[in-house]
Design a protein that fits this description.
- This protein is mainly beta and 224 residues long.
- The chain has 2 helices and 11 strands.
- A hairpin with a 4-residue loop joins strand 9 and strand 10.
């Protein structure tokens, strides 16, 4: 199997105003409601979506099309079929009632950022299609930065959306397209990604004018 060993990166997030979601586990394609840090503040809805778990797993790190695609094309902001990944949608609520918004202020926060812990389980399928757990291993990241979807996590672009469309809520979208992982299987077996687990999701902004210096957080887990 030709593939490139994934290089894992660890990003540590420090932020004020941490907000935790309520109890209970969220699953793939589910949403989590995260309350505002203070009464009258901004709450958030976080959605885990568009997860891609390649089965079988046979990525081509140099492919920009096809079933083995790992390279993102121009303006592609979602996971590739060869390497897999997921998307994260965020909607912010009660923004229009914030003092800075009512005063017509611009944001000083620049871009929203998002982070998550990820765990991908790999292994081999027997000829009958069953998973051989003796071959399984897990590739993990801690607080991996999520990639922005175009300019949409720009805090001032989001403020313009709130002001242009007064009957809708908006928020920053993100995604992850994973690097390829080397999976070696015995003869007659097929490499596969057995599953994906995403936990400890955080979305953060440091903006004293409108959005506040806040981190919205949910432990998950999300599964795919």
């Amino acid at each position: 199997m030709r593939a490139v060993l994934a290089r894992l990166t660890v990003a540590l997030l420090a932020g004020a105003g941490l907000v935790l979601a309520g109890p209970g586990a969220a699953r793939a394609s589910d949403t989590v409601e995260i309350p505002a840090p203070t009464e009258g503040g901004i709450s958030a809805t976080v959605e885990f979506r568009r997860a891609v778990v390649p089965q079988p797993y046979n990525p081509d790190p140099n492919a920009s099309s096809g079933d083995r695609q790992c390279l993102l094309r121009y303006h592609q902001y979602w996971a590739t079929p060869g390497c897999g990944g997921f998307g994260l949608g965020v909607r912010l609520h009660n923004v229009r009632n914030q003092p800075g918004y009512l005063a017509g202020l611009s944001s000083t926060g620049g871009y929203f950022a998002a982070y998550a812990d990820t765990a991908r389980t790999f292994g081999c399928l027997r000829p009958d299609g069953s998973f051989d757990h003796d071959t399984s291993f897990v590739v993990r990241t801690e607080q991996q930065p999520l990639s922005p979807v175009y300019y949409e996590p720009d805090s001032n672009w989001l403020l313009r959306q709130f002001r242009t469309y007064p009957d809708q809520d908006f928020g920053p979208p993100f995604f992850v397209n994973f690097p390829a992982v080397e999976v070696s299987c015995p003869e007659g077996m097929t490499a596969t990604q057995y599953g994906l687990k995403v936990t400890n999701v955080k979305v953060t902004i440091d903006d004293p004018n409108v959005f506040g210096s806040t981190t919205w957080s949910t432990p998950g887990p999300f599964y795919a």
